[in-house]
Amino acid sequence: MRPEDWQALQHRLLPHAISAADSAWCPYSEFPVGSALLTADGAIIRGCNVENVSYGLSNCAERSALFNAISQGLAPGSFKALLVYARGLPVISPCGACRQVMIELLDPECPVIGVGHDATATRHWTVGQLLPGAFSEF
């Protein structure tokens, strides 16, 4: 993907991810994260982290957006891009659990963008780059 394509995706998705982060429920970590998932038809589905005092029951922003999309009837593998935003870090990267969910629900070549408060430190990956050697049924 060309640098200008990454920049266009970031420009389109970042405001939605920032807005999603504002909706985060994170009273324990005080670390709001938002994500924006671009669908095949150009719609944007937001996700935010939702915490629980029993941390294992919490959900990350990336998985929230993906689970929301699947629950709306959208097909796995049909998404065009995912952006993750956290204002508390210079740049953010998806956790291991999110990477495993992404490898199953996104195409391995799907772009993933990590953005924090320092937009110059933005990172770009494909899903396949985030989880090389992933196990899956496919």
TrEMBL record:
A Pfam family annotated for this UniProt entry: dCMP_cyt_deam_1
Keyword Metal-binding carried by entry: yes
Record's catalysed reaction(s): 2'-deoxycytidine + H2O + H(+) = 2'-deoxyuridine + NH4(+); cytidine + H2O + H(+) = uridine + NH4(+)
EC number annotated for this UniProt entry: 3.5.4.5
Keywords associated with the record: Hydrolase, Metal-binding, Zinc
Coiled coil: none
CMP/dCMP-type deaminase domain segment(s): 8-138
Annotated CDD domains: cytidine_deaminase
Name of the protein: Cytidine deaminase
Binding of substrate, residues: 49-55
Organism, scientific name: Pseudomonas japonica
Cofactor(s) the protein needs: Zn(2+)
Keyword set includes Hydrolase: yes
InterPro entries, alphabetized: APOBEC/CMP_deaminase_Zn-bd, CMP_dCMP_dom, Cyt/Deoxycyt_deaminase, Cyt_deam_tetra, Cytidine_deaminase-like
Family listed: Belongs to the cytidine and deoxycytidylate deaminase family.
Root EC class: hydrolase
Top-level taxon of the source organism: Bacteria
